[in-house]
Design brief:
Blueprint lengths: L2 H8 L2 E12 L3 E4 L6 E9 L1 E6 L2 E7 L2 E4 L6 E4 L10 E4 L4 E4 L6 E11 L5 H4 L6 E4 L12 H22 L5 H22 L7 H4 L6 H9 L7 H7 L4 H12 L3 H19 L4 H7 L5 H12 L3 H7 L6
Parallel strand pairs: 1-9
Antiparallel strand pairs: 1-10, 2-7, 3-6, 3-10, 4-5, 4-7, 6-11, 8-9
Helix pairs in contact: 3-4, 7-8
Length: about 325
Amino acid sequence: MDLLSRVLSLIPVTGRLELRCHFGAPWKIDEDVAGVREIPYHVLLSGQAVLEDPNGPTQKLVAGDIILFPAGSAHLIHDGSGEAAVPPKTSRQAAPGIVENDGHGDTANFLCGRFLLGAVPDHLLRDHLPGRLVVHSAPSAATADPESPQQSTVRTRLTQLIELMNDEALDPGPGSEMFVNHLSAALFALTLRFAAEGAEPPHGLLALTRQPRLQPVISAMFETPGKPWTLEQFAALCNMSKATFVRQFQDAIGRSATDVLTEVRMTIAGRMLLRTSTSIAVIGETVGYQSDAAFQRVFKRQIGVTPARWRASGGNLPA
């Protein structure tokens, strides 16, 4: 199983398409901080826009851009005119709602929604993605390097998926809301795949997917998390010296292999705590801790609560 599939199998992600926005300049989309386990997204179907948020410099957006906020941060998307936005109005309440304004300037159309993370520890996913991720699904004539056949295939599928979401939202039928939400969940995985296939994938897990020499270690972490792994053993799996392995892993993901192994273990443990009645001590042993006290200490440090409280809450606590 590839890395992205492994992570998404542990941390289920569903989607919810909430709004279709049809604006004439001047307009703006001004969102507050997202709720726990929410990743807001916007797809610019047509027109142009300007993005402002605390995760990076102001960025111009063009049709086909997909914008995700894994950090859930507040953000502002607007037409860039500097004029006061014409107030929007909702013309349909049913999901996805339709939001329009009476602006007479250049138009822009969006699909807006959010990805919802399952009730398991989500650091392994959220903390390894940038605070914001902008993916350009439309081909650009300005791109100097030709894209690979694999990247081209993913681009085509991503474009088709967005078109299908928009078509279904425009002309809903029986079961449309459920269908569009399933497509929205697929959008998350396909967007991350497309970003990973790019010439410069974002730092973190997406970059690690481009490091085939490190894949044996990722497989080992997920398949046998309970083994008392050492850096020397990880290096041997990759046919590298310890120093080379440590440097390449750190360069690829920005964290040490030991840290990532701990995150994998805590994600698996958090899932087991919610989905099984196995004792906390046995779960700790399953993910590599011979001492129950050591497991409890690491779990609380990583997740913020004790294993017992996590289980009792059903995972409905900030992870």
